[in-house]
């Protein structure tokens, strides 16, 4: 009896569906340690008749469906683009698309319909799956085998065409030398695959040696295409990166990988290797179908290259925020004093804006401009805001962790780097806080002598002091929110540095004819050089000001208790409050305010650094074991050489390799 004639449609659910339900139930039951889950597949008892019916059912589905959608899109995505793909995933989460009954992808999706099926499918080792599948499909009808091979060849052809289309796209081609001519490996790959597929489908005489030679040639072309993609990774610091480019690069990589897998299935003479490759595809498909509407997965997989580039920019900047010796340590203190002086003026200006009683929108606008202009001025003058340092230096730590394969002494060196970072942060915090208070107090005294009244009236002064009380206000949550903004501003700085490079603004401005006539070539070159070095920093500081200045207004609009607290502004505001109350501040208020300022600074740093290093570690794929080792070593150093965390003393085990000493004037 023919294989297809024995298949009865209702048996599809009875056997294959029950089989997956049985394994799924074992997974949910969490098998005991004496019987590992990896043995469940091989231990499930199926008699020869059940296996035969299951095999016939699966082959029946394969013989009556199209493979292309599953083989060319699953875990790869469509060519819609980053945002279009994200929008489609979001809409499908609420209103799934119509299932196509003639697509293999539909039947596959129905079989592995539970969202966590990929977990138990992945938990079963590859060789167990391979053994099971090989025993299930010992004999396959020649007609079905030819049909399957034809569908795989069609998929191979489509994968090669899509890879070639993306490979010569202007977004990609502009980053790879000589990729848009006839010698392009992407176009060459497409030509070779077309000949290979045509010979397999139409040629009656296609000898095994010729087929194997063509296969090897295709693998060479795939390797050349991968080399072109590697060029983009290696030279991203020269031309930058974008969302669209990262999306296209990832798709090309997935097309090439899937193409190689399908070719191996057709070409390998080793049945075990063939079934292992099929098993790998099975696991990829189940994971892809279970998570096909996941926005988190979409952003995580496609943004990694972009975030790596953004983090890399902040890493280069972060090296300048770490003092390596005593002279750099005290220079950092001086720059922190400069930043604190300017912040005292910002506190004064914001308090006077408060008394103008602007509408909510305009109050937020002027607050934001006050912050933004002040931060950009601090950046331009080469001063520092202490709590902004962690967002820039976290990626420097992550860079050391992710390079430990090339650096066997990474743990000791990274620990010493962290110690230098902590004491640099400490002296910057001290510099900001100790100067902001007396300068703000002096400004109030001068203002009172000139105007006859204080910058902050008694009611406002009491409110400023109350906002510092961590026991009776939301000072710490508001400080945590400020820490989040500080982290975000660091990423924005890296993003705009990358944007400047990616869009080639330096060359475009230097060659702009009207600007050359207006400024002259020499002056224009100096201007573009300055912005090339500082554009990211200025942008990050501008947006940080917007975040800090508008949060309170947004909270008021939505009825939420939103606000920000920053250690340097807290110190300056306390100086204005003491002046406004004409020194009539009790000892308890002094003590609570000092504790509050310290708590706000601590929360600013912890949140900013914690979020920044988490983001940096993820972008560089640092392992959790590395982080644990670093924390343990850092704790040991603190208990044995605690003074080094606050002052640059020479530790017995400290290495002599130092970072750049000073903070250049171009950095905040």
Mind sketching the topology for me?
Blueprint: H1 3-6, H2 11-28, H3 40-43, H4 48-63, H5 68-73, H6 82-94, H7 104-111, H8 117-123, H9 126-136, H10 142-167, H11 170-173, H12 185-202, H13 208-234, H14 236-239, H15 243-267, H16 271-290, H17 295-318, H18 326-354, H19 360-381, H20 389-402, H21 410-451, H22 458-466, H23 475-502, H24 505-510, H25 513-519, H26 521-558, H27 567-580, H28 587-620, H29 624-640
Helix pairs in contact: 2-4, 6-17, 8-16, 9-16, 10-12, 10-15, 12-13, 13-15, 15-16, 15-17, 17-20, 17-23, 17-28, 18-19, 18-21, 18-27, 19-26, 20-21, 20-28, 21-27, 21-29, 22-27, 23-26, 23-28, 25-26, 27-28
Can you tell me about this structure?
By secondary structure, this protein is mostly helical. It folds into two domains: 3-293, no CATH class; 308-645. It is 74% helix and 0% strand. It contains 29 helices and no strands. α18 (326-354) packs across α27 (567-580). The chain is elongated. It starts with a helix and ends in a 28-residue tail after the last helix. 40% of the residues are buried. Its main location: membrane. It is found in: Membrane. This is Recombinase. It is a multi-pass membrane protein. The chain crosses the membrane at residues 328-348, 426-448, 475-496, 535-558, 589-617.
